[in-house]
Design goal:
This protein is mainly alpha-helical. The chain folds into 2 domains: 69 residues, no CATH class; 122 residues, no CATH class.
């Protein structure tokens, strides 16, 4: 709880986005962001990077623009912690060498470059991928992400490797805040209590 004030401030900002300023939907709302953007009823939204390919392809009757999400205050450091999917070979594999070859291919630079230029695959966090000019030929908006990706920070792991339980515990309290059923201070205290209970468990 050394950073409790910072957490409470962040929770208050998120609460204001939804409940006070009403510029972000609540978890209880059902919105088709793609349809709203395509019909121009919604003019801006946070989206995954692969939309750089998909949206202009699906909706061609107006000009698309992609920008990095603005920082809260001018001059704030832009964080670059990346949420990545992870592939691996399990102990149950009957052909571990073949499985590892597949994992090497699916995580490799060329497969992912081709995924961008031939289809709608999402980008990955390989610096050699972002250094390949082929991905910018048809989708120059990806260039906006290159600086962020070249300075990517390492992802984090929960100390006892119970990441899914940790996330679920965090969400249990956080979701109530977004629904307007809890306040930032009590949410911070509840988050601390719930996630600490997970961290106190033996390693998974």
């Amino acid at each position: 709880m050394d950073n409790k004030d910072v957490l409470v401030s962040a929770l208050k900002f998120r609460q204001d986005l939804i409940q006070t300023w009403k510029v972000s939907p609540t978890p209880s709302s059902t919105l088709d962001v793609t349809a709203l953007l395509g019909s121009q009823k919604l003019l801006a939204a946070d989206v995954w990077p692969f939309r750089i390919q998909g949206y202009p392809t699906a909706f061609k009757d107006f000009q698309w623009g992609f920008v990095l999400t603005p920082t809260v205050k001018a001059g704030d450091k832009r964080r670059s912690l990346l949420n990545e999917h992870v592939f691996g070979v399990t102990q149950a594999s009957k052909h571990p060498e073949n499985a590892f070859s597949f994992v090497t291919w699916i995580c490799g630079k060329e497969m992912n470059v081709q995924g961008i230029i031939q289809g709608a695959k999402g980008s990955i966090a390989r610096q050699d991928f972002w250094a390949d000019e082929r991905i910018y030929k048809d989708y120059p908006a990806y260039k906006k992400l290159q600086g962020v990706m070249n300075n990517i920070e390492a992802d984090y792991f929960v100390g006892n490797f119970r990441g899914e339980e940790f996330d679920a515990a965090f969400a249990q309290a956080y979701d109530l805040l977004e629904l307007g059923k809890a306040q930032p201070e009590e949410t911070a205290n509840q988050i601390q209590k719930l996630v600490q209970a997970v961290l106190d468990k033996d390693p998974a």
